Structure formats: C-alpha cells, structure tokens
C-alpha cells in the first residue's frame, strides 16, 4: 500500500509538471516529454519497490540507487517548479483579467502568456540553484557547537561539572562520507567531554553504512564511556548488525536498557529507549523489538541515581518521563532541516518540539538539530549541531 500511494503521487506530480512544461517549451519537444519524464523516474520506482519488498541486498545495484536518488532530487525540483508555475499563472490572471466578451469566445493563446511563464520558470530555476548552493554550504560546513549549563537542584554533588557530548542524526551513508564524519569527531573531541551520547539515526538506511562512522570515531574515548540508541532510520533494515558492531567498537547500545556511570561517589544512570520503528516492520515487514519500554529501561536502578535518558524522538518524551528521566536527549527533527519560511520550522509538521530546550516542571528535554541530512543534501536555517551539555548542581 505505501508503494502504491507513493507511485500515485509521483504520477500526479509529473502529470501536472508535464502540463506546465508544455506551456513553457517549444511544441516540437512536447511529444518526447512523457518519455523523458518516465525514464527519469523509472529508477526511483524500481528502487523503492525493491526496498519495500526486501530485495537486492545491502550492496546490490549501486547504479540503480544512484539513479533513484537523482530522480528523487528531480522530483523535489519538480514540486518547486510547479509552485513557481502556479504563482506565475495566478499573477498572469490577475494582470490580464479578461473582459466578459473575451471569456465567451475561444481566443487564441496569448504569446505573451507563454513568454511570461517561461521567464518565471527560468527565475524559479535560478532561485532553486541559489537556494541549493546556500543549503549545501550550511549542510556541509562546520556544525555549531552549542554549549549549555543545565542546573538541577537534586543533582548529586559528584556529578557537578560532568560534560556530555550529544551527537544525533549523523546519517552516515551516501550524503555523509568519511571526511565529514572525521571532522565531526575532531570537533567533538576538542571539547573534551566526559561522555559521548549518540541519540539515533546513525546510518541513512543500511547497516553496512555504519563502518565509516565507527572508523571516524575509533580511538575517541571519553573517560566515562560512549553510549548510543538507534533511530528510525537505523530500523529501515535489519538492525542486528548495527547492535553488534556498536558493541564491538566499545559503544554501549542501550535499547530499553541502562548503564551506570560513577563519578565522585555519585551515580548517573544512562537509560535508552527503543525507537517505535523497531515494532513497525513497515519496510521489511520484520519486527525487531517492542518499541519504548520505560519500565525495562529503569529496572533495578539505584534509588539515588540521577537519571538521564537517550530517546530518539522528542514526541516520545512522556515515555522518558515515565522512566524517571530528569534530563532527556533527543534528535530526529533536524530542526526542520529545510526552513524556507523565516521564523517557522518545518519540524512543526511532525510535532511541537522542534529543537532546543524544553521544560516540564523540573525535568528537561534537549532536542538537537543533528548533524547529517536526509533526502536532500541541504540545510536551510537549521545548521548542524554538536551539543555540549554541562550538568550543574543548583
């Protein structure tokens, strides 16, 4: 069913795009347009179908995957082009509102209308190119390092001054390569954190994409350890290789589990909740877990332990609170990633907690904008982020 809905949407968008292109392009090109659009999108349809059916294996058909990604980018451009075309046609109708006599007669097409729409199409293409350059620079430039002091009146004295490096949504894969991962590691290591905490979406979609990430962070050993949870993208395929390789690399994977960190005679309980995608089975029709289980994550913890929870989705904060978390770290939203409307985050479309700090009584949630990108290699008004959080007593 998801595949059929996606296919229908692709066909609808391209039918509208075809109508717009016929207004903008010379008539001699009209006959070839449906074939060109069909050939462009055929790899996307084939690849999406194979992924949903679980065919092809991890490394199979790399050329098809590359062509499918190109078709996806073209689909994104198509939507932008259609929006620009709709605005241009609306402006033309306002400017050249026909007289009543003209409405009753079938007048020949106005050549100036075609010229106006062609100019609007060129302008939208130029705007898209400028937006793409600016968005790519923000996506692949150095991330912002957000340094926060978070105070809790009940923080044990031994944990005062503990520095946490919060890394989220790295999306290692086709759009995030080894060089970028190594840069993120260097910037994080420069902050000299006591713990490194990864809050999911380590890979873009396949378990074998984890290896460059592990290689980039090899040798990075904060004194009190490294901990991780998986995000929804980590469940697009069988996550068991990710669990295995994280543990083998010395990164403790907390899926409805916890670990204790002792510093200055005080105990920090690092809990992790499993992402709901574990039970979804949407892509491979396989279930790899029950989803978030706060009771399991908090089982047998010392009564005096200060509880910190790794929870990929900020929409699941209530689950972390049910586990007794005083501080919850999340990602998932990318801060909207592409925010073309000033003052409005696209992440509002998936929930009210988009990025930054949130409070519920004395309990806190920090939502990172994350580091990587998904879908398009762009970030607009949502720069990548490494969060360095220092726990304070007071």
Describe the structure.
- With 394 residues, the protein is of the alpha/beta class.
- It folds into 2 domains: 136 residues, no CATH class; 250 residues, Metallo-dependent phosphatases (Purple Acid Phosphatase, chain A, domain 2, 4-Layer Sandwich), CATH 3.60.21.
- Helix content is 39%, strand content 17%.
- The protein is built from 10 helices and 12 strands.
- The strands form 2 sheets. A 6-stranded mixed β-sheet has the order 1-12-2-3-4-5, covered by helices on one side. A 6-stranded mixed β-sheet has the order 6-7-8-9-11-10.
- A hairpin with a 2-residue loop joins β6 and β7.
- α1 packs across α3.
- It is elongated.
- The termini are far apart.
Give descriptors for this structure:
single chain, 394 residues, alpha/beta, Purple Acid Phosphatase, chain A, domain 2, six-stranded mixed sheet, 10 helices, 12 strands
Question: Tell me, what's the shape?
Answer: elongated
Domain tally: 2
Compressed to H and E, one letter per element, the order equals HHHHHEEHEHEHEEEHEHEEEE
Q: How much helical structure, as a percent, in the residues?
A: 25-40%
CATH topology of the largest domain: Purple Acid Phosphatase, chain A, domain 2
CATH superfamily of the largest domain: Metallo-dependent phosphatases
* Strand line-up of the largest beta sheet: 1-12-2-3-4-5
Low-pLDDT ranges = none
Tell me what portion of residues adopts beta-strand conformation: 15-25%
Structural class: alpha/beta
Radius of gyration: 25 Å
What is the tally of beta strands? 12
**CATH architecture designation of the largest domain:** 4-Layer Sandwich
Distance between the termini: 53 Å
Q: Can you count the helices?
A: 10
Largest sheet: 6 strands, mixed
């Amino acid at each position: 069913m998801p595949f059929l809905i996606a296919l229908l949407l692709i066909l609808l968008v391209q039918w509208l795009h075809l109508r717009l292109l016929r207004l903008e392009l010379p008539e001699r090109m009209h006959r070839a347009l449906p074939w060109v659009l069909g050939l462009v999108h055929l790899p996307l349809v084939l690849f999406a179908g194979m992924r949903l059916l679980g065919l092809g294996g991890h490394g199979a058909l790399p050329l098809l995957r590359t062509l499918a990604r190109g078709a996806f980018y073209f689909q994104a451009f198509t939507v932008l082009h259609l929006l620009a075309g709709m605005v241009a046609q609306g402006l033309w109708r306002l400017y050249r509102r026909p007289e009543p006599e003209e409405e009753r007669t079938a007048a020949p097409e106005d050549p100036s209308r075609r010229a106006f729409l062609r100019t609007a199409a060129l302008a939208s293409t130029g705007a898209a190119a400028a937006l793409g350059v600016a968005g790519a620079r923000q996506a692949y430039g150095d991330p912002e390092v957000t340094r926060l002091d978070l105070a809790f009146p009940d923080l044990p004295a031994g944990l005062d001054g503990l520095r946490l490096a919060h890394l989220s949504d790295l999306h290692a894969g086709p759009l995030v390569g080894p060089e970028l991962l190594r840069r993120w590691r260097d910037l994080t290591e420069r902050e000299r954190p006591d713990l490194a905490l990864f809050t999911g979406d380590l890979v873009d979609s396949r378990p074998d994409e984890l290896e460059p990430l592990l290689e980039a962070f090899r040798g990075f050993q904060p004194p009190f350890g490294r901990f991780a949870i998986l995000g929804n993208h980590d469940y697009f395929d069988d996550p068991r290789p990710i669990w295995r390789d994280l543990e083998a690399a010395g990164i403790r994977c907390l899926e409805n589990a916890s670990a204790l960190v002792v510093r200055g005679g005080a105990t920090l309980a690092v809990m992790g909740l499993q992402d709901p995608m574990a039970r979804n089975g949407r892509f491979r029709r396989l279930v790899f877990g029950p989803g978030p289980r706060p009771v399991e994550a908090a089982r047998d913890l010392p009564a005096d332990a200060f509880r910190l929870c790794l929870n990929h989705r900020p929409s699941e904060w209530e689950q972390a609170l049910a586990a007794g978390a005083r501080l919850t770290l999340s990602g998932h939203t990318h801060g909207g990633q592409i925010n073309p409307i000033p003052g409005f985050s696209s992440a509002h479309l998936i929930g009210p907690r988009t990025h930054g700090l949130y409070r519920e009584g004395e309990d806190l949630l920090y939502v990172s904008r994350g580091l990587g990108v998904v879908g398009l290699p762009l970030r607009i008004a949502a720069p990548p982020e490494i969060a360095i959080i220092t726990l304070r007593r007071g």
